[in-house]
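Model it.
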Amino acid sequence: MTYATLDDMKARFKEQELIELTDHANVPPEEIDEVMVGKALADAGGLIDSYIGGRYTLPLSTVPHQLVRYCCDIAWKYLWGDSAPEAVQKNHDIAVRYLADVSAGKAKLDVQGEPAPSGVAASFDGPERLFSRDKLKGF
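Modeled.
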């Protein structure tokens, strides 16, 4: 699922940095490689899905604001790759820890009307019990 857009990335990060991270042709006019940003956002969305899919029915009917932010932070780290500055890595790690907390039930998404997927419930069906409190009353 897509949790953020190029416009969300532009709102959170400097456009010039987006250009530098994605425009590998380095010829005028310098532009953001929208395909590259889209791939980073899709990869970030896949990671988010892997964490929250066990707790929430996907796709979500609405995208909570915190997922937009964390999707951008994760995608930003993906764009930087191994040369990510410490602050970029830290924001990525915070996002992943939050997703782990959602997966473990320690944090909850701001999604109204989203039922958590039903877990496996055990039910037993069989013949009537031979011995019960009522049948053994008086013994």
